Amino acid sequence: MKVLVITLAVVIFDQVSKVMVKGFSIPVLNFQYKGMYPGQKIQILGDFFRLTFVENPGMAFGFDPGMDFKSLISIFSIVASIALLIYIYYSRKQMLSLRIALAFILGGAIGNLIDRIFYGVFYNYAPLFYGKVVDFLDFDFFNITIFGRSYDRWPVFNFADSAVTIGILVLLFFYRKGSKEEKTAVGESGSQEPLNAGDQQPRSDIKNF
Q1: Torsion over CA of 106, 112, 113 and 116, rounded to 10 degrees?
Q2: How much is the pTM?
Q3: CA 156, CA 142: separation in Å to the nearest integer?
Q4: How many whole angstroms from its chain centre is CA 147?
Q5: Contacts of 18 (CB under 8 A, 6+ apart)
Q6: By the 8 A CB rule, do 18 and 24 touch?
Q7: Are 164 and 108 in contact (CB under 8 A)?
Q8: Residues 6+ apart with CB under 8 A from 105
Q9: Which helix (H) or strand (E) holds 43?
Q10: DSSP codes, 139-151
Q11: Residues 6+ apart with CB under 8 A from 116
């Protein structure tokens, strides 16, 4: 379960970045940090990479399922996160790459889940479970159409989204690699010559079978 350190790091980094973008206040200390205003753009690498503060009302890529489904999405995300945590526990003896990938995915899921559940209450604009996800990473990769909407830039995202993407890519890469190695091992074992009748000891290359 040591890989959960990755999950914790993703959640902390994601939430700190979102709070710095959205702003926060500490009334007890009479301190207020304004952050960015909605729609504000800050160029980092020209038009290729900039910080653009938008709030995602629903699912990925800004798709809005409507208010009637927002609480259901939050509840589903909670259940999915718990299921993923349980799976990480039961896969604790499996290959490290699998556990690292799952830890990244879990961290990303929890990061965005915090926004959906608590941000509406924290920032006093919506009840529990009706918050909006803070997005701000804005890249100009290529034009794309998703859910019937056309984008001249890659949809604005956050570090939680990045963690989920990294986790999925790690899963795909090592799953394919593991499948190829398994097929190779099966092919090699199937080509072994049978033992001679007079052999007293098993061959060293098949002694574990």
Answers
A1: -170
A2: 0.81
A3: 13
A4: 20
A5: 115, 134, 136, 158
A6: no
A7: yes
A8: 84, 163, 164, 167, 168
A9: strand 41-45
A10: E----EEETTEEE
A11: 70, 73, 74, 77, 129, 130, 131, 132, 133
Question: Average pLDDT for residues 75-103, to the nearest whole number?
Answer: 94
From 73, 69, 103, select the one nearest 85 (Cα to Cα).
Answer: 103
- Amino acid, single-letter form, for residue 70: K
User: pLDDT tens digits for 164-176?
Assistant: 999 999 999 887 7
Packing angle, helices 159-190 and 96-114, rounded to 10: 160
The residue whose two tokens read 């889940």 is 113
Alpha helices for the chain (secondary structure H): 4-22, 67-90, 96-114, 120-122, 159-190
What dihedral do alpha carbons 54, 57, 58, 63 form, nearest 10°?
-70
**From CA 137, how far away is CA 113, in angstroms rounded?**
18
Contact 22, 99 (CB under 8 A): no
Q: Tokens at residue 120, please?
A: 């509406």
Are 105 and 81 in contact by the 8 Å Cβ rule? The answer is no
Backbone phi and psi for residue 76, each to the nearest 5 degrees, phi listed first: -60, -40
- The catalytic site residues sit at 135, 161
Contact 95, 174 (CB under 8 A): yes
Tell me the per-residue pLDDT of 115-136, one tens digit each, with 9 for 90 and over: 999 999 999 999 999 999 999 9
